[in-house]
């Protein structure tokens, strides 16, 4: 599902809301999650999962084309851990 499909589904299920308002709500939620992660905070959505940021240390990598060693800088990457409810639903429990 992509963002526009999510917005359309929410708008269809809530006919009392205008689609532009639903779009603003969805965009605000995503922007807040991104802002929190950028600050290094953890975002937890109960029953769904938790978003956090993990630090990857610098390391020696390889250029796949030439095989030469390359220094890979440290970086921060988003990480998602599923909640128990989501995991149970995916596994049919």
Automatic annotation (TrEMBL):
Pfam families: Bac_DNA_binding. InterPro entries: Hist_DNA-bd, Histone-like_DNA-bd_CS, IHF-like_DNA-bd_dom_sf, IHF_beta. The keyword Ubl conjugation does not apply. Keywords: DNA recombination, DNA-binding, Transcription, Transcription regulation, Translation regulation. This protein is one of the two subunits of integration host factor, a specific DNA-binding protein that functions in genetic recombination as well as in transcriptional and translational control. Heterodimer of an alpha and a beta chain. This is Integration host factor subunit beta. It comes from Albidovulum sediminicola.
């Amino acid at each position: 599902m992509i963002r526009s499909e999510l917005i359309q589904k929410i708008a269809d299920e809530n006919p009392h809301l205008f689609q532009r308002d639903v779009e603003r709500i969805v965009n605000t939620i995503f922007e807040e999650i991104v802002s929190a992660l950028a600050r290094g905070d953890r975002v937890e959505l109960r029953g769904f999962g938790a978003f956090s940021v993990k630090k990857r240390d610098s390391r020696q990598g390889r250029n796949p084309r030439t095989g030469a060693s390359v220094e890979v800088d440290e970086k921060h990457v988003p990480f998602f851990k599923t909640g128990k409810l989501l995991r149970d639903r995916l596994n049919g429990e």
